[in-house]
């Protein structure tokens, strides 16, 4: 371990941060309770964190520097100041999570990776972005929490797990505390009967399909009519140009022209164009309104109309930040 430390110091002084990182990491992994003290391991964690900070490994740097500063009272003042300055430099690049779990012996996983310790409260460091926090314990229903970590921010929440044996444990502990109490066998609760799905549970999906179909159909028909109106307008322009080029025509000859005359044909084209344009515009507007209402239904919670628990659905919510705009879809499978 000492040889790794000497090699790491030489590389750090020479500005060779990759070599220094490898040396301090080897020293940190080699240190154990039998060959080193808590203060020595804290120093190694801090030096490793500073190397990771120089290599832009901000999450690892924040974790190792925080572990080192747990022994700050025992560290020399110079080292304490270096490690605190490194922690301040890493903080704007990572998110800090304060997580509470109940029961305290529950296993916690971040993005499927297990945290190698158990505690009632965790202080964790995360890369900015979306993360899935899972808690699990024997006899308990897994807890899930989707977290969008923001750089430089601190997130805090508690994850209680629903344990089926909680009530049985309480009864057992109270029985132990009473000398004359006799143990009561714990009976398994009967399985809940499957309930028929409420008719209200399916109608939002049906209406959404109908809404999408109507919106698509009306907008498409309206667009076709507006294209037809544009074509009729071109035909009118061509007929009008022909009439103007005729030396026998005048501005007053179309006032009382018969239906089968060129002026009558021009009036029919005008009426057809106006009708197509008005109907097409109305259909496009109607389709837009139906489409907006259908889109809004995806952001509306209809679970209060049926018996399906809110946790069994898929949540769709808009996301607008300084860096991106989109939709976040969450669910439990």
From TrEMBL:
Q: Which residues cross the membrane?
A: 279-299
Domain of life where this protein originates = Bacteria
Compositionally biased residues, Polar residues: 173-183
- Fetch the InterPro entries from UniProt: TPR-like_helical_dom_sf (IPR011990)
Question: Is the keyword Transmembrane helix in the record?
Answer: yes
Q: Where is this region: Disordered?
A: 173-197, 238-257
Keyword annotations = Membrane, Transmembrane, Transmembrane helix
> What segments bear the compositional bias annotation Basic and acidic residues?
238-247
The protein in question is named: PEGA domain-containing protein
Where does this protein come from, organism-wise?
Answer: Sorangium atrum
